[in-house]
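Predict fold of ClpP/crotonase; 286 aa.
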Amino acid sequence: MSRSKMTEWTYDYFNMSFPINAVVHVEINRPAKLNAWIEPMWLELAKIFNRISHDPEIRAVLLTGAGERAFSAGLDIQAASQGGILSESAQDNARKANALRRHILEFQSCISALEKCEKPIISLLHGSSYGLAIDLTLATDIRLCTSRSPPTTFCVKEVDIGIAADIGTLSRLPKAVGNLSWVKDIALTARPFGWEEALRVGLVSAAYPSKKEGIEAGLKLASAIAEKSPVAVMGTKKLINYSRDHSVEDGLEFTAVWNSAMVQTSDVKNAMTAGMQKRKPIFEKL
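Predicted 3D structure, encoded as tokens:
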């Protein structure tokens, strides 16, 4: 991507790069604070992924955290207590509750922007991956982690600060791993757990010895996805997420309606022709 184009992708709390054709690498960039989250970060996150969703040049995303120590230590508790969601308020209880409800819903929608993004997102966790790190990556499509340099340590930390996790973990984690007993174990105790356990229960699909190797693997995976029909990829993500949250019958009906339009894409003809000619198909931008 040209230098002039790159300047259009400059953000305060995220590094953006385009290492492979049609793939964007989004890096959380607050390493001095272990990539702990403050309100401007999640607002910026939503802007980035809403933009990625509609950008025809992008077909897949890799999400990582800057620095060697942490993907993210979660919510910046100090900042939150000084003017954020945990700060004191002089409002009466009803008004304070309504303000908090609005704030939580806005925060949730910013994280959900990743799940709603039309482009598949691969996340690579490393080092400390606490609280909001799990909320965030559960909204991505494929999760990877590191096993050694540094090993990934996960933790649903919220009960240790006196709250129930409210940005997505308690809604998405049971569906991601399919083991309610294990989810309650780690959520109720806030105990840290390692990459082996995360891999065993299906929270991540692969672990790599180092962050560097994890990034290389994530980019390779993103590149493979980016070569597919963008219409088919968008539809596959949409249909899997819909079916996860609905009955089989509802999922089949939604799939029929979706594909009644999307199967008319020229990508089907291109793929079949390329297959017969034993060449790699080239698809138009979305």
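Residues 31 and 67 are 5 Å apart (CA to CA).
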